[in-house]
Design a protein that fits this description.
It holds the Pfam family DUF4159. By secondary structure, the chain is of the alpha/beta class. The chain contains 25 helices and 16 strands. Strand 15 and strand 16 form a beta hairpin. Helix 3 runs parallel beside helix 13.
Length: 838
């Protein structure tokens, strides 16, 4: 019951997060809320068409002599039910739901022979959690696809040869349909065989080689594919997408079978057939995304290759954005898409499912962006250049994203990005992944973008392919160039990556070395110098090299604090809207004291954009070094840091004079730093009296500071890392105030606000949730700007991510540590936190 309750609360929080974030696209684009509503209506339509335990036009498969050649009530009987179940499961419905469970049992017993029908039924089996049950259920479809592959006297790959393709059916005696093949049913059969592999079937490697050669041989000179060589017509969007998607699948299995080639680093691996196909899509996608004879089926194909290739754009077209906009616009009133033919071909359910799959998978969270960069040879080093040094393991990120998604029962995407785009566009994912075996060398403008990405909350991950020492050195040097104040060190065994996430290093046969560069709040960069984990992602060695997967899963979960995922095209990033005209301005001083006074430069940049957009208040930020007499005209001064510090008498006098003359001083320990907090409390006691550690009084939730004008903070929440580390309630604010003549002149928080203002979820921070931290600072600024009166713009959640879940009250700390939950229980906990994004 507790797990179910937590899951429900997290699903509500995630839905709110999708609706709350500021989308980084035009106002006319479909919002996440609209997409959510469209998916919900579509699922309701599918359920409305269910007939007991199935969706078929007729109750049973007709006799052989009365079957139309490929109609769904004949040879493709069972396919509508398989399609409907696939759409529902892919959109998050449970295999344990009574309606779904009954239909799955119906599918297991259905006497299916049609290849379309078997292909759609096969998509359901990977959703079954019991491995034995999934393998048993998929066995019949595996045999259909293995026996149904056409062999022919014509040489494979010869124009017009059906060898390596599929017809519409295999009859009861295992006889293949004579004299017919096409690439539409062939694509779906390959997808069906892939689903069987995921459900536990062992597919002969020769199968993938035959299919691979057949599709390569059928590619047209323009890079596309057509429906069938024996019919008129050129390359089409549906068949070109089918060809590219098929070659991505066959490539993965063929490359996996030849694992020895990945032990050396020779540069990027290219597939000329896939490249030509993607070039065709670059030229034609803008038109294909607008309309097509089989539009919904075509969108399904485009989504598959967009996700498989890690591409956000075809040409300059954001394929998901355009497709989602069109689908939201053209959805039927009953929740379906498409239009049925006269009786024999019910297209509404397939078209509705294809549309659901596009929306669900296309907007799935992006786990990492893989950086595309060029090799710049250094003649002095005698290290030669190589092609595509960033892509020596072309399927590393794709394979890890697939494995990670299975761990948390949720679709996850990956992308390829470059540094030609603005820094904020890199925030589609929490991690920017840089791999290679050559020294890195970036231009000045690229360095600036990398720095902006990290300061905006991102994490840069480096993997030294082939454990190359030159790459490792250059990555460390890159860290020094980006953040000269900080240095790399090996992560301590007490780091949250090892102690707070899903997997424990004590279970690993080998513990890969991990180096990190921190600002004292969070890791800015992480480097795997010698384990070459990407090699084992490429070869899908999750069983023999589980530590390479589990370590990366821990890094991923650390970067999102286990629950801070965003759907594609959404982000916590807030950009200043130039169309909004400010009504007021206010000066804010960033007070510089101690060795690390500004660990998160991106915090106030984001806060400035929020105040501009939401309160029409422009902040004029100024860095003020305390003791130089420059503190005074600013209405608000912010003091933060992570290190110990001591003020001299002149600095204390300046701060005290500032607040006594009407200034508001906001102090917080960045990251929840104990060193900074202890120093701050000592200095506050010296300036304003009282005992160290008990400064001022805690402001109640309804204090005017939190409720300026008509606005208020609906709920105060904290990061998960806080639990068990602080005493007292975690459902209320803990900020202490020093009051002068009824005015809270000094506001002090031992719990982090600074990192929270960035907006990203990251583990290891003792502080308020990003949503609450952002709202607190926003309310303080609004209160000061309007002197506690007036009616400023009401605080909303539109500028922040909604809280992940209400924080539980801490239990009294036991003198002996509580035993950790078992791996099985921990796994369920992480699943409950992370599922539901589709």
């Amino acid at each position: 019951m507790m797990i179910q309750a937590l899951r429900r609360s997290l699903l509500l929080a995630v839905t709110a997060a999708f609706c709350a974030v500021t989308p980084m696209r035009p106002a006319t684009a479909a919002t996440n809320a609209e997409v959510d509503a469209a998916i919900k209506k579509a699922k309701a339509y599918i359920y409305s068409q269910q007939k007991g335990d199935n969706w078929e036009l007729v109750a049973a498969m007709p006799p052989a002599d009365k079957r139309p050649q490929y109609r769904v009530e004949g040879w493709q009987w069972g396919g509508v039910t398989g399609t409907a179940i696939y759409g529902l499961l892919a959109s998050g419905e449970s295999t344990q739901d009574p309606k779904i469970k009954a239909s799955l049992e119906w599918l297991k017993k259905a006497d299916i022979h049609g290849h379309y029908a078997a292909a759609m039924r096969a998509q359901a089996w990977p959703f079954i959690k019991d491995e034995r049950e999934a393998a048993q259920a998929s066995r019949a479809d595996f045999k259909i696809f293995l026996n149904g592959l056409i062999g022919d006297k014509k040489p494979m790959g010869e124009r017009g040869s059906p060898f390596g393709f599929y017809g519409y059916y295999t009859d009861e005696k295992g006889k293949i349909q004579p004299n017919w093949y096409d690439r539409s049913v062939s694509q779906l059969c390959v997808l069906g065989m892939w689903a069987c592999e995921q459900a536990g079937q062992e597919i002969p490697s020769e199968y993938w080689r035959v299919v691979d050669a057949a599709w390569k041989g059928a590619q047209r000179p323009d890079g596309g594919w057509n429906y069938q060589d024996n019919r008129e017509g050129g390359s089409t969007g549906t068949m070109t997408a089918a060809g590219i998607a098929t070659l991505f699948i066959t490539q993965d299995f063929i490359l996996q079978a030849d694992g020895s080639q990945w032990s050396t680093c020779r540069g990027g691996q290219r597939n000329p057939w896939i490249d030509k196909g993607l070039d065709w899509m670059d030229k034609n996608a803008p038109k294909l995304l607008q309309s097509a004879p089989h539009y919904h089926y075509q969108l399904y194909g485009i989504e598959r290759i967009g996700v498989a290739s890690g591409r956000k754009y075809f040409g300059t077209t954001d394929w998901y954005k355009v497709g989602a906009d069109k689908l939201v616009e053209m959805q039927n009133k009953d929740g379906s898409w498409g239009k049925d033919d006269a009786g024999h071909n019910p297209k509404k359910i397939p078209d509705t499912v294809f549309s659901i799959l596009f929306l669900v998978r296309g907007r799935a969270p992006v786990i990492m962006n893989k950086l595309e960069y060029t090799s710049v040879p250094d003649p002095a080093s005698k290290i030669p250049a190589m092609p595509d040094p960033w892509n020596q393991r072309p399927r590393d990120a794709a394979n890890f994203a697939h494995w990670s998604g299975k761990q948390i029962e949720q679709y996850l995407n990956w992308q390829v990005v470059n540094l030609k785009v603005p820094a904020h566009e890199l925030h589609d994912a929490p991690i920017l992944y840089i791999a290679g075996s050559l020294p890195l060398k970036f231009k000045e403008d690229e360095i600036k973008k990398l720095r902006e990405f990290v300061e905006g909350g991102g994490l840069i991950l480096g993997n030294a392919d082939c454990a190359n020492a030159n790459f490792t050195k250059s990555f460390i040097d890159l860290g020094g160039e980006l953040f000269p104040k900080y240095e790399f060190r090996e992560l301590p065994k007490t780091h949250p990556i090892y102690t707070e996430e899903q997997f424990r290093p004590t279970k690993w046969k080998v513990q890969p070395k991990v180096m990190g560069l921190t600002n004292g709040v969070r890791e800015l960069m992480v480097l795997i110098p010698d384990a070459d984990i990407a090699r084992f992602w490429q070869t899908r060695s999750e069983k023999t090299k589980n530590e390479c997967y589990e370590l990366m899963q821990n890094i991923f979960l650390y970067s999102i604090d286990k629950s801070g995922l965003y759907s594609r095209d959404s982000s916590y990033i807030v950009l200043k809207d130039g169309k909004i005209k400010p009504e007021k301005s206010m000066e804010v001083a960033r007070v510089i004291v101690g060795d690390n006074p500004n660990p998160e430069p991106g915090a106030w940049r984001r806060m400035s954009a929020i105040m501009h957009n939401q309160a029409k208040l422009d902040l004029k930020l100024e860095t003020v070094k305390l003791g130089e007499g420059k503190l005074g005209p600013q209405k608000v001064a912010h003091l933060t840091g992570t290190a110990k510090f001591t003020l001299n008498e002149k600095q204390r006098a300046e701060l005290k004079s500032y607040v006594e003359k009407g200034g508001t001083l906001l102090i917080d320990a960045a990251g929840g730093s104990n060193d900074f907090a202890t120093a701050a409390e000592t200095e506050l006691a010296a300036m304003f009296g009282g005992e160290v550690g008990s400064f001022g009084t805690i402001l109640p939730p309804d204090h005017p500071v939190y409720t300026p004008g008509n606005s208020k903070i609906a709920q105060f929440t904290y990061r998960a890392f806080v639990r068990g580390k602080v005493a007292g309630s975690l459902n209320a604010p803990r900020i202490r105030a020093h009051v002068i003549q009824g005015r809270p002149a000094v506001l002090y928080s031992r719990e982090d606000l600074t990192a929270g203002m960035i907006g990203n979820e990251v583990d290891g921070i003792i502080g308020y949730s990003p949503a609450t931290a952002t709202q607190i600072v926003k309310q303080v600024l609004t209160y000061v700007a309007y002197k506690g009166g007036g009616a400023p713009v009401a605080a909303t959640s539109a500028d922040t991510k909604a809280p992940a879940a209400p924080a539980a009250k801490p239990r009294p700390r036991s003198p002996t540590p509580r035993p950790r939950p078992s791996r099985r229980r921990r796994s369920r906990r992480f699943v409950s936190q992370l599922r539901g994004f589709g």
